[in-house]
């Protein structure tokens, strides 16, 4: 199937793209356009052009990964477009086809999959206190570090039910509920997405020479987590 | 300072309040026809240099009007001064003269630390 | 600035908020950073307002952070959300009270999608049935937890011991409100006051005696951007966006920032510390940072709750300047104590300007 | 009702007029007044129903007209003069409450409980200005120094006070094109046609008053469709240094000193742009408005999706509604400039006259 056609099967794409008059209102308000070489208006123009070559270039580029999905563009567009939703469709397709590994920002999907994706399936949460390792999150500061090192006591102090049974913040999600989430991922194509991210990332990791630790590609993950070629913005 | 693994990014936004209009004003005074640019792109479409290198004559007006002196300097170097742009301009702007004037004056207004 | 103009906008965007009997769904991010806020919300509803709010241990993440960092497909998140609705339906509830703004945005997005594309609803019902055997009803009322606090803001003001007033000068505290992007930017009619001049937090501040600070970048995103924070090398985006907000609010000398989003108050809090580290710059008074709070913490302070019970010690930027201005009594020695005063050590260096 | 306004009451007993065909015109703006004069000249008996105390409609809001800065008063005086020279009636502060067809005639009841019989109706209910408060992100009626083009028009009169905060003259002024036009969020997909040239005209007038000020127009397309419009645009660039930035304004916000921070994309550079301005002028578009939709309902004629009245066709029958005997004139059918409105009104008069005469001929046969 042609890429444009493929995109057109995505509800977000149908919702997100009507027609664009290149007024630039989206770019004017976009937090990403301010700090990245990113122009949401051009995203709309390129996909609207149905130019397969340019769409393929987009899918393989850093550009589609700059958006923060804040959806400020939706509030303002005088034609009712939402570039944020178009981006979501582009990112889905980029991962579907393995194109995401062609760009520095796209490759980061593996790290997100490993943390957020696996948390959702196996813990029932997107983020957990255990993830806030000070070395990976220096901005959490001394207080963050103190919380991390005294997780049980701090969460107990403020009334959370950390890893406990029953209700409350940070409670342990019952296994039968996690089983349901697992089946949802199986049936709805959630695992297909996660597996594709793993599959294409492995190929890329190999081709980039990250052959150490093939079981989990931790070197590759640490590389994609910290690398910034400095070419994403005007400095 | 602690290494956070990232830095604060400079804004890409054109901050009009920081605009240095000295070069622009000088050019407009010497070649007032340049004020009437419509941004139609006729000049770029016919440009001899644009056939060979990435060069956009139309953007010259914008670079001047946004005070992008450094970029402007590197852009005008690409012009071959053939004057075709002037022939197609619907507003009859003497673009060749504009470029000559920029070449002459740009050094005066270039930011010192560039 | 003309208040009448804003009042007109607020009148144009009023939404229905259920009066009682809520099914509560928690937020992944908030329970990490502000677990005490969720606790405070439940306490206010149950003990102060005597409302019925039910929490089911089987509900999970809505997977929204995964969806907005694009590793969770739309079909999957629709089904996970449908499962939450099924738990609500099974428990006999029709009103959902959502702690998280990302979830709130997703619930609205999905419900609107189902209206516009009924085939998606049918598909989701089938997915849910096949994977869990469950069926569900769409909630009759979807409210963000801040909507509910907004609804009862006058009652809270009447029950309260404290006001958002500088007890020494008698002047209202100047408070900046920050609304999570997904609260109303996608669906302005789903937010109190719409997308441009949301009233949800402004209404609380006014009702509790404070003065709302309207600064130029008030609508700008805090910069979380999902993948833009989750990956370390992207965080320049996050901090730069927050910094833009601080620079814009600085001339107004705000006494505090309040937010209704899960991530924003944490980012607005932590980035002040990082900016101080990186640039030596602080945005508050006397070289301090600007205290940041959640709306539940703000309500709790008004009601006279202990700040450490609510978890305000988990903030990086010191909250004491705000507590002192409000004339709130607190025990500094117990700030970093564990339960029942247990000593568990304290952070090595504290806070922005601390 | 103000005593100074001449009111001619409808008098069905007037023997002379009984012999004539009677045409009721709904709306005493430019279109209504011009149609009334032309039909009176053609030998018909005309009554205009006008909801306001004065004639002229929206013309009363403008001070100087594009493209030649003619004072709006001159057009109004011309309309008034025509009225004084001719014998037609105006029912002021009156609106059509109901309209029924009976034996080939229309029975009309007005809000002040008058009964009229008419042989033909001309709807000339005009337009309303877009309520800029609906573009909340521009902060009209919230921020002190955001005004509309209609507000500015009053300030452009010789005694208009153009000062902003602390009595200072604005140093930088921006115009926003397409406010309430070409905008799904405002519910208006169409172009209001006249705002582009209005912006250029007002920018020049401001520059004349405030020669030190920098003036910017934020536009998407400059639709200089009329005679001398493009020339005026060029003059604005060449002679008055008005700058045109291609990009739609995303938002305005008020700073602590009451100046405004505005944001757009400089689409020709492909970069976001922000600037501080002392005064922001919103070029508000036209909407069919309540008067026109009420006329559509009482007359049983259709509206376009835009809310403007549907014409029988766009080329040869632009003065015909879908109902026989009910004609349309002016900006109730589409956004229209004053000169186009005058022409449309005259053609409406011609069509009505022609239709009445052919009907008379038919009756005789």
Sum up the structure in keywords.
heterotetramer; B: 114 residues; mainly alpha; 6 helices; C: 354 residues; alpha/beta; Glutathione S-transferase Yfyf (Class Pi), Chain A, domain 2; Rossmann fold; 2 domains; four-stranded parallel beta sheet; 16 helices; 45% helix; globular
Tell me what you see in this structure:
The complex is a heterotetramer of chains A (235), B (114), C (354) and D (365). Chain A contains 15 helices and no strands. With 235 residues, chain A is mainly α. Chain A folds into two domains: 3-97, Fumarate Reductase Iron-sulfur Protein, Chain B, domain 2 (Orthogonal Bundle); 106-226, no CATH class. In chain A, α8 packs across α14. The two termini of chain A are 40 Å apart. By secondary structure, chain B is mainly α. Chain B has one domain (22-108). The mean pLDDT of chain B is 91. Helices cover 45% and strands 8% of the residues of chain C. Chain C has a four-stranded parallel sheet with strand order 2-1-3-4, with helices on both faces. The mean pLDDT of chain C is 96. Chain D has helices at 15-18, 30-41, 72-85, 149-155, 195-209, 229-238, 289-299, 338-364; strands at 22-26, 45-49, 64-65, 70-71, 89-91, 96-102, 105-110, 115-118, 120-123, 128-129, 146-148, 172-179, 214-219, 243-246, 251-254, 260-266, 271-277, 279-284, 286-287, 326-328. Chain D has two domains: 15-127 and 288-364, FAD/NAD(P)-binding domain; 132-286, FAD/NAD(P)-binding domain. In chain D, α5 runs parallel beside α6. Helix content of chain D is 27%, strand content 25%. With 365 residues, chain D is an alpha/beta fold. Classes of the chains: A mainly alpha (235), B mainly alpha (114), C alpha/beta (354), D alpha/beta (365). Chains in contact: A-B, A-C, A-D, B-C, B-D, C-D. Chains A and D meet through α3 of A and β16 and β17 of D. β1 (14-15) of chain B pairs parallel with β17 of chain D, so a sheet runs across the interface.
In short:
The complex is a heterotetramer of chains A (235), B (114), C (354) and D (365). Chain B is mainly alpha-helical. Helices cover 44% and strands 2% of the residues of chain B.
The helix fraction of chain D, in percent, is 25-40%
Tell me about the largest β-sheet of chain D: 5 strands, parallel
Residues in helices of chain B, as a percent range: 40-55%
What is the gyration radius of chain D calculated from CA atoms? 22 Å
Q: Can you name the CATH architecture of the largest domain in chain D?
A: 3-Layer(bba) Sandwich
Number of helices of chain D: 8
Biggest interface reads: A-C, 95 and 97 residues
Can you give the mean pLDDT of chain B?
91
Q: How much β-strand is present in the residues of chain B?
A: under 5%
Cα(first) to Cα(last) distance of chain D is 47 Å
| Shape category of chain B | globular
